[in-house]
Amino acid sequence: MSITPDLIREKLIAGIxxxxxxVEDTSPNRCAASFKVLVVSPQFEGKPLLQRHRMVNNxxxxxxxxxxxxxxxxxxxxxxxKLKAQ
Length: 86
Known about the structure:
Shape: globular
Mean pLDDT: 95
Order of helices and strands: HEEHHEH
Number of strands: 3
Strand content: 15-25%
Largest sheet: 3 strands, mixed
Strand order of the largest sheet: 1-2-3
Structural class: alpha+beta
Helix content: 40-55%
Distance between the termini: 39 Å
Radius of gyration: 13 Å
């Protein structure tokens, strides 16, 4: 299976109702070995950071078996609006 930023984005939108997803392939040759993601979902409301990360990890469980490095930032819609306003 070829892991692409689009695949990751689509799985997060479908799996945790993400309303905004930024995915960056951070591997040196863009070889899909490491990714950095920003995920905004209303499902993160009231959940601690660890639980949010577990939600993302569970959603991408199959893909994470093939990814060497995965960095994630998880925000609620309210946190995302505040960040954009800065």
